[in-house]
């Protein structure tokens, strides 16, 4: 096994082992990719305060997210087509998360189905819901997540319509890949991936195929989204979904204080400050820059989580010290999965945990619960001074 020292090592392996179409699908943002880039570069602007001569024994990164014990304040974000990055990718990621003691969130647009993941794990995972025009199908999905004993419903609000990622169009992204000359030429260099896929439990959207009729092309993410996603989703519909679910609800994709207040009104248990990893509204603020205004608006009334741009334990520490109660990683674990399957996801979690623990210690803290603004140097005007 190659020596892995950071998430960038896993990303390099991912690029070399997974077909270009799926690597590009993960490693891109919408349009100019400004928000995608700033999600990471804005984390770099925040610096850490080094403290010394503090007893660093007995450190703990353990905490809670929505009342659930977690080994560190990091969950695995919902990622569509995870099972195309590695055979049975959702099962492998969920198992790695379970063994590590962090939550796994299964996407609606997964390859392994809700039932596949439930069967392969022993603890409850979270289910991410995209809302569709077909309300019967949505109700059936919610019921399936209940039957699988999912312990939270993560409703994604920032993808009523799909942002454009140029590479996905140029690559003809689909699951399974369509065998064009270009795809075949690339697949010929990814034998291990291909052999794994031949043995995979599934190669199509497991929550969709066989559960819904009348789809013209269920293999194409773009076609499915345009035809089926509900562009009329509003706060009333969100309140109804919450009622239908009846358990813990996390609202994902909040980037504005006014929307955070609406999320509070519908009774969300947590919100995720997120711009979908820079894949939707290009030109939107990075999540870490949007976080302070949202915390100011609702931080004392609802649990505020954050994703988009986290590539290290230092980033996790910065988000938590700014006031987030939890974070999510998307690409950071997908790189690991593409690189080495389940072991790679575990490796990504190990890397981030070690970085978080060491950074915390060198900042003079022994417990994640004590992290706060005292540990950070935040540039003046970090949030930006924008005209009204
Ligand atoms: C390849 C990919 C697929 C994604 N699919 C979904 C999805 O199906 N549902 C969803 O709510 N978010 C999805 N997201 C967004 C992630 O849940 C998360 O918000 C994002 O990855 C965080 O940014 P990061 O990748 O920089 O950590 C996806 C992200 C990526 C990279």
Q: How would you sum up this structure, described in words?
A:
This protein is α/β, with parallel strands linked by helices. The chain is built from 16 helices and 12 strands. The radius of gyration is 20 Å and the shape is globular.
In the predicted model, the low-confidence regions spanning at least 5 consecutive residues are none
Q: Which structural class fits the helix and strand makeup?
A: alpha/beta
Mean pLDDT across every amino acid position: 95
Termini separation comes to: 54 Å
Q: Count of DSSP helices?
A: 16
Computed over alpha carbons, the radius of gyration is 20 Å
Counting DSSP E segments of at least 2 residues, the number of strands comes to 12
Shape: globular
Largest sheet: 8 strands, parallel
Helix content: 40-55%
Strand order of the largest sheet: 4-11-10-9-8-7-6-5
């Amino acid at each position: 096994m190659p020596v892995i020292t950071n998430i960038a090592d896993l990303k390099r392996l991912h690029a070399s082992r997974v077909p270009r179409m799926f690597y590009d699908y993960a490693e891109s943002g919408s349009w100019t990719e400004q928000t995608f880039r700033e999600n990471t570069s804005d984390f770099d602007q925040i610096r850490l305060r080094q403290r010394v001569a503090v007893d660093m024994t007995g450190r703990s990164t353990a905490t809670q997210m929505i009342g659930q014990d977690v080994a560190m304040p990091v969950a695995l974000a919902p990622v569509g087509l995870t099972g195309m990055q590695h055979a049975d990718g959702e099962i492998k990621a969920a198992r790695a998360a379970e063994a590590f003691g962090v939550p796994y969130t299964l996407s609606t647009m997964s390859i392994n189905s809700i039932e596949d993941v439930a069967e392969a794990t022993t603890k409850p995972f979270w289910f991410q819901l995209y809302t569709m025009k077909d309300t019967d199908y949505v109700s059936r999905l919610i019921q399936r997540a209940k039957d699988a004993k999912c312990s939270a419903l993560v409703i994604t609000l920032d993808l009523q319509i799909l942002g454009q990622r140029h590479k996905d169009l140029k690559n003809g992204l689909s699951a399974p890949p369509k065998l064009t000359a270009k795809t075949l030429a690339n697949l010929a260099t990814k034998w291990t991936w291909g052999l794994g896929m031949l043995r995979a439990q599934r190669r199509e959207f497991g929550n969709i195929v066989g559960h819904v009729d009348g789809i013209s092309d269920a293999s194409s993410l773009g076609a499915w989204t345009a035809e089926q996603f509900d562009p009329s989703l509003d706060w009333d519909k969100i309140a109804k979904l919450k009622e239908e679910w009846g358990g813990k609800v996390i609202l994902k994709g909040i980037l504005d204080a006014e929307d955070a207040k609406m999320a509070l009104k519908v009774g969300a248990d947590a919100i995720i400050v997120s711009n979908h990893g820079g894949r939707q509204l290009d030109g939107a603020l990075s999540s870490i820059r949007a976080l302070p205004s949202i915390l100011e608006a609702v931080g004392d009334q609802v649990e505020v989580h954050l994703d988009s741009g986290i590539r290290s334990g230092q980033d996790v520490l910065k988000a938590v010290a700014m006031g987030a109660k939890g974070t999510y990683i998307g690409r950071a674990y997908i790189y690991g999965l593409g690189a080495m399957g389940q072991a790679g996801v575990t490796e990504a979690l190990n890397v981030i945990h070690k970085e978080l623990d060491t950074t915390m210690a060198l900042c003079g803290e022994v417990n994640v619960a004590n992290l706060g603004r005292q540990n950070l140097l935040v540039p003046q005007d970090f949030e930006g001074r924008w005209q009204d």
